[in-house]
Amino acid sequence: MNNHSGSAHGDTERVFQALDSFRIELPSWGFSNTGTRFGKFVQPAAATNLEEKFADAGQVNALTGASPTVALHVLWDTPNGVKDAAEVRSLETKYGVRAGSINPNLFQDQKYKFGSLANPSAEIRQQAVAHCIESVEVAKALDSRDISMWISDGANYPGSQSIRRRIDWLQESLKTIHDALRPDQRMLVEYKPFEPAFYFTDVADWGMALEYARSAGPQAKVLVDTGHHYQAQNVEQIVAWLLHLKALGGFHFNDRKYADDDLTLGSIDPYQVFRIFYEIVSGAGDQLNDIAFMIDQSHNLKGKVEAMVQTVVAAQELYAKAALVDQAKLAGLQDECRLVEAEELFRGAFYTDVRPAVAQWRVTRGLPHDPLKTLYESGYVERAAKQRAAKNAGSVSSYA
Ligand code: AOS
Ligand code: ZN
Ligand code: ZN
Ligand code: ZN
């Protein structure tokens, strides 16, 4: 098994070292009922309020030890802004998970029909900026470092909006929000090529996100959502570039087959996740601690807590595999252009079954050996279903 590295013992050590520092953030919206644009299938155990989201996130963290923070969505989780901070603080203590990145909402309000931070109306832009600044205040009150900016703005038809004027408007908006940050806070700019807009989105790719981040100020970085690329795009190369430019803020992890499917990380193409993680373990250096690994998935068919545990476990396994690559040996083979040997060394790490080493790591860290099995045995989901079923049944009729 060891043509990728030195010894079985060395492998275990690398896995342990990698996992000790690996943390991945859970999305609050991944625990509540969500669906597709065609409707939603309600789950009886889905979280119906902020406390239940914290309870679920706390459960995932208790089982995996790797997800101590939960991303909050301002409109859905802290609708009263900083006034809700006290409640969040008490939930953090009660459930053992802290608030993570703060996500403003620039896509739901009717006023954003033609855009938010890049809307042709100065008044609406100002309202969107005000919401983002309020989100920064929420983050300050919760000691959250990151404001995650997903800007859904765009246009559906050629000629219907000015691509160029919207660049100016968005740059100005982002700069104003950046100025509201505390020195230790960051603004993460997420890009996406389409959806909900279908002709262009204002932040369509990593080049645009990078330039918006640069013009906003030094505390702005790029957020890579793995599902926000065209099919053939080489995501690990983007990651390598962003590291090179010291501009990688973090990730929204998920997998996809077609578009922004938000499926379980590594369920379709685990090799791609491995390749992304390899760029990080080999190239992040002292940037590593500042890369926010976050999950952006909301499962409408899989059980939510189950799916999140599965995701965290998958992330740990793929990260551990990436850590197995003997980087010095690989560099030597690359320099000598021993192509097949280099590729085999790389692939060898990917194909190594790290599950026993990961399970061993869990046991030595006082965590359940098999988090999914422990979840099933605990009856947590069944209890949640009993407590929440009536409230969730209500959400069917209110949707329809
Ligand atoms: C949307 O496609 C983006 O991935 C967003 O990052 C995310 O789903 C949203 O911010 C959640 O509110
Ligand atoms: Zn995302
Ligand atoms: Zn996505
Ligand atoms: Zn997305």
TrEMBL record:
<dbReference type="GO" id="GO:0008740">
    <property type="term" value="F:L-rhamnose isomerase activity"/>
</dbReference>
<dbReference type="InterPro" id="IPR050337">
    <property type="entry name" value="L-rhamnose_isomerase"/>
</dbReference>
<dbReference type="InterPro" id="IPR013022">
    <property type="entry name" value="Xyl_isomerase-like_TIM-brl"/>
</dbReference>
<dbReference type="GO" id="GO:0046872">
    <property type="term" value="F:metal ion binding"/>
</dbReference>
<dbReference type="GO" id="GO:0019324">
    <property type="term" value="P:L-lyxose metabolic process"/>
</dbReference>
<feature type="domain" description="Xylose isomerase-like TIM barrel">
    <location>
        <begin position="83"/>
        <end position="261"/>
    </location>
</feature>
<protein>
    <submittedName>
        <fullName>L-rhamnose isomerase/sugar isomerase</fullName>
        <ecNumber>5.3.1.-</ecNumber>
        <ecNumber>5.3.1.14</ecNumber>
    </submittedName>
</protein>
<keyword id="KW-0464">Manganese</keyword>
<dbReference type="GO" id="GO:0019301">
    <property type="term" value="P:rhamnose catabolic process"/>
</dbReference>
<keyword id="KW-0479">Metal-binding</keyword>
<keyword id="KW-0413">Isomerase</keyword>
<dbReference type="Pfam" id="PF01261">
    <property type="entry name" value="AP_endonuc_2"/>
</dbReference>
<dbReference type="InterPro" id="IPR036237">
    <property type="entry name" value="Xyl_isomerase-like_sf"/>
</dbReference>
